[in-house]
Give the backbone structure.
Amino acid sequence: MPLIQIKNLTRKFEDFTAVDNVSLDIDEGEIFGLLGPNGAGKTTILSMLATLLSPTSGEALICGHDIVKNPTQVRHCIGFVFQDPSSDDLLTGRENLYLHALMYGVRKSEINRKIDEGLMLVDLTDKQHVKMRKYSGGMRRRLELARGFLHNPKVLFLDEPTLGLDPQTRESLWIYIKKLSVENKITIILTTHYMEEADKLCDRIGIIDRGKIIALDTPFNFKKNMGGDLVSISTSNPDLPSLEKIACITQVKYEHDLLSLTVDDAGRHLQEILAHVGEALKVEIHSPTLHDVFLKLTGKRMREGSGGGEGGWMTRSMHAGKR
């Protein structure tokens, strides 16, 4: 039986539908990613699952508990790492974890042991007595990750967990998230608009656009189903009818002097292809990525440089209504 069951979940804000009839099952121990641009509905889904926002319609069960009928039981099952920083800068790392343990009712006899385990997992034992205001962005995110699972939740929500971090720190945090999943058998749902993050971390991905999950699969299958290598050629006079007859080419698209082909084993067939494209000013070949998958499914590219589309308001909501 899935640990998380979502059926026809919908959330409207007046006449705007932020989440549109989403249905989804997530298994125990799975790392599931919601991949989509800012404003697509990712954080709104998490906020409903975390009982911070009531759905307009539909239902969801977490660990067998209904998010509307049994919110207290749901909250006992979940942990959260917010998109925006939420630790107290005036406290040390260890003091932040201790405060969190008290708030979540961790037995006093177990608090120090759990804090020690969490600090060790994210490699912050030697920084535990440093004030949070002196932590780097990566250190802060690692501590908040340790805080999120301190009370042994069965489900952990990560809302844009590496937003704003440099690439090296981001990859380091991926290691801790994977380690957390494997060693503690926690089910993780993360939202992200970083394609590589979804590819490296997630067992399955739901691609979300305009409040709908438009595709659901593993990263490997998404890329495999693209049908071959992607070839881009800058040219002004390709022989399109001839290209469409070549057996290894599964898709031909030409616009604005750019010829885009999907080719089975492009390296082996490149010379045959070039014989039909006229004067080639530039040729690029690459294996499919989730960028290509998203572009094919939505018809648009997803910007990875910006953030903060939905998450800030949810963090403020959690602070306003701490359990």
In short: Residues 118 and 146 are 5 Å apart (CA to CA). Residues 228-287 form a domain with the Alpha-Beta Plaits fold (CATH 3.30.70).
